[in-house]
Description:
Layout (H helix, E strand, L loop, with lengths): L6 H4 L18 H9 L13 H25 L3 H20 L5 H25 L3 H21 L7 H28 L8 H32 L5 H29 L2
Helix pairs in contact: 3-5, 3-9, 4-5, 5-9, 6-8, 6-9, 7-8, 8-9
Amino acid sequence: MQSKNPIFARNAQFSRNGYGNFDVGTPSADQLAGMYGAPPASPAQMGRMTLDDVVVRTASLFAVVVAAAGFAWLTGLGFVAAIGAGLIGFGLAMWAQLSRKVRPGVMFAYAGFEGIFVGAISHFYELRFPGIVGSAVLGTLCAFGAMLAAYKVGAIRVTPKFTKVLIIAGLGYMVFSLVNLGIWAVTGNSVYAGGGVLAIGLSLVGVVLASLFLVLDFDYIERGIRNGVPQREAWRAAFGLVVTLVWLYLEILRLLAILRGND
Length: 263
């Protein structure tokens, strides 16, 4: 990934601290000694993405998701309004993901609308199945930890073939979900209605896909830091992680609801 670094042009410190900027003219022996003895610049000082950048941005986006979800939960937002917020969130996610320009404003807008959707849906399921939201949150955290551990120990390796197959599967699942939503909106029926083996199987597919997409997020973050991408790309990395975690939570929530509905 190619990048430009405008920070060097704006920050006067980079012309004084010996990180590679030289004054016009022949430097003296003392100046050369100072230059070579200066500490190396850190990624943050060079305007490169760091893990801290990703963590801070992920936390800020999640804070908006949680706040919006709390608002929807406490106000008892209707199901139709929740679906509308979810569709708007989906559109904003596509805009942020496909845009060549990093758009933090769009990402925060997504976090708000998606948070409303998550809060309303969670409240709906919690009223029907008390305790299900806590179980879904715990399941999401466990899946996140398991996939991170599997990625770190090399149990799951991100190869071009793995990435291609997973993206195709993810796109196929997204198309299926949109078609199913359209059928539900027109007829009131859904493949998940009534539970059963098919509904459980499809929900398991969603959970597995979302979990595997976490591995792609981890790899994207690691490669970005290693390759020294611009600091602004931390927004894109954080956004991808938030989108995947929200998706995973919703899939686990639906799976638990189907399982408890079959009891």
